[in-house]
Amino acid sequence: MLTTEEIEFLDTNGYLDLGQLLTAYQVNQVNERIDELMWSEGENAGAELAESKYIRHPKEEGADRLANLVNKGSIFDVFYTHPRVLAGIEAVLGKAYKLSSLNYRAAKPNQGLQKLHVDWKNTVVNGSYKVCNSIWLLDDFTATNGSTRIVPKSHKLSSLPDEVMADPHDKHPDEIRIIAPAGSVFIFNSHVWHGGTTNQTDRVRRSIHSYFCTREQPQQIDQKKYITEETLQRIGEMGRRILDV
Q1: Which of 53, 142, 202, 227 matches a 20 to 30 Å C-alpha distance to 9?
Q2: DSSP readout, 145-185?
Q3: Per-residue b or e along 106-125, where b marks 16 or more CB atoms closer than 10 Å to that residue's CB
Q4: Are 63 and 111 within 8 A, CB to CB?
């Protein structure tokens, strides 16, 4: 599902543009479901994140959050089963991987800035990567609406942003921005330096993250704890394997 050139680009740079994997209609349907969940969950939106001891910053003032989307509708199944995404995850983590979490993040107007960070506690030895993310764009990502920034090739460094930058919130001279239309999907090795930027518009900037880890790692969201019978019956053997349930 990925070309040799795409796999080499992902390995070298730590990220890969998979193109538009969702149609405009699918994006609209997902956003409608997100709106329903934000309204129904209210102040409890994203509460599952706070229950996890494996998420460093469960509450983020500058962004709306939802979690445990695996169990909140079949419309979200594609986010962790799409073959091109899984091919990218496998290129980084090998065949022994599982979904760690499926969450929604929307940078609020005039907020959303994150420091450059990695999603692992230290640097990687000999390319033994432990985590990999995919970001699904539910809005056009532009230079002004809080698009994600990435420092290419930083997943191969022997240092972390906090160790070498005076302020990891600052712009890095080598960083690039994910600029692409809604429906696009980007894979990024979660050991690459990355972070959200400030949303300078008057509307939220929406995305979903399907975040994977190697099978020996604990999941951010314990899929066995939250899995419903309806989800189990729907997703089939492949889905159960990806969720490790």
Answers
A1: 142
A2: BT--EEETTGGG-SS-HHHH-S-TTSPPTT-EE--B-TTEE
A3: bbbbebbebebbbbbeeebe
A4: yes
Cα separation, 162 vs 94, in Å, equals: 28
Answer left, alpha or beta for residue 152, where phi above 0 means left and psi between -120 and 50 means alpha.
beta
d(CA 97, CA 93): 6
- Separation CA 32–CA 217 (nearest Å): 33
Question: Is 40 in a helix, a strand, or coil?
Answer: helix
Cα(62)–Cα(111) distance, integer angstroms? 5
- Go through the chain and tell me how many residues it has: 245
What is the per-residue pLDDT across 215-241, written as a single tens digit (0 to 9) for each? 999 999 999 999 999 999 999 999 999
Q: Which two tokens stand for residue 95?
A: 């065949």
Name residue 223's amino acid. Answer: Q
Rounded-to-integer distance, Cα 225 and Cα 181, Å? 35
Kindly list the domain boundaries of the chain, sorted by start residue: 4-243
With H, G, I as helix, E, B as strand and everything else as coil, classify residue 17: strand
Classify residue 94 by its DSSP letter.
Answer: -
- Output the CA–CA distances (angstroms, integers) from residue 189 to 1, 49, 59, 109, in the order listed: 18, 21, 23, 27
Running DSSP on this structure, what letter comes out for residue 213?
A: E
- Is it true that domain 4-243 has CATH number 2.30.30.140? no
Q: What is the pLDDT of residues 126-153, one digit of tens each?
A: 779 999 999 999 999 999 999 999 999 9
